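Reply to dn_fold:

You asked what the input looked like. This is it:
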Amino acid sequence: MENRMRADVLILGGGAAGMAAAIQLAEIRNRVGLPGRILLADRMEKPGKKLLATGNGRCNLGNRNVSAAGYATRSPRRLEEILAGAPFERQRAFFENHGLLCDLQPDGRMYPYSYFAGTVAEALRRSLRAAGVEELAGFEAVRLEKADGGFCVTARDGRALQAGQVLLAAGGKAAPALGSDGSGLELAASLGHTLHPVWPALTAFTSSSPLCRDLKGVRAAARAGLYSGGRLLAEDTGEVQFTEYGLSGIPFFQLSLSYGMLPPARRQGISARVDLFPARSAENLAAWLARQGSRGCSAGEALEGMLHWKLARAVGKTAGIPEKAHLDEAAARRLAAALKGLEFPISGTLGWEQCQVTGGGVSLEEVDPVTMESRLCPGLYLAGEILDAAGLCGGYNLHWAFGTGLLAGRGMAGECAIGQGRPAPEKKRREGPAPKRKKPAVGGGRKKQ
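and this is what came back:
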């Protein structure tokens, strides 16, 4: 025991959740005069590594319009409770109080005013140092055990740490090159926590359709929908990207949440349909095409006046109409149907290396929604991507990470205060009735757009 490093609080994971929790906890302890060692341990060379890749390097910090409907989870009611204690304005104030000027866009997305993720990481690191949080780099935790009224954590290189409280904020399995390899999930399971199956979220789909190769590199504004047996599961609108392997772009990233919530057996026979003219009806398109035919345009010529030439050829091929064919009313109707529903069989999604976030994880039912403390293992806290909540693009996932981190920081500070004979912070975070829960589209917080 004497050879172990000791800390009052050990935070495993130097991402958004871990850094926010460490800063919040340290500042509360400093404010009330509680001594103690707070240690932030991460397997990477310094905290904040994964933040640098968020939002294409611009770091979409949050979204004013965040709600439980924007997340895939098996515990939507519990997720609502947690979000109620992590309001947008509180997070915005946290950033600005720590020297980070934010820019709120009209659509609700919030970015650092610099639009540079490095600004965020450095501001948080400065705050960690100012609050007296110690950093431990290159610490790859492989074992977490209850010991001597607290916890013992052992690293792969044999180093051991003893702490009274531990926060697991080690992320999920997404983007393993940035430090997330799923080890935190294994540590949570080793202490009895339920792990819902994990899956790559916010990622592209793969398809066996030969059209994918034909359309490689093409982008188009469209509505994308996922279908099972002809039934619409979910849809989203935005810029679709066609790739050699399948379908990408924000709409398909969003749809990956609904896909991931399906049981594996139900993922068979899933197809995607791309509506290339979501603002127009099939009848309107057919009439327009027929008018072009009456002007002497061939099918190919009419389509090339509407679409990128690669898409025009793909639509004609799907409808079975040769490029030089006369465009009569029957051909116009067939082409219009293809324009409104270019279909692709779905074989799966890209893997952990290409996804942005982890779906699934530790059950939300097993954490206190106010303090983020484990209901199974007192003194253990959980925050961020390790939990069963995967959000939409647009700041939802960083909102979750920072929000749960701040809750955990206050929660740990409350327990420390009790241990020093001081009152704990008020647990009630919300005034008025709980928000009404919207019915999810597919097994969780995701709704049809």
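The chain has two domains: 5-200+356-419, 205-349.
Hope that clears it up.
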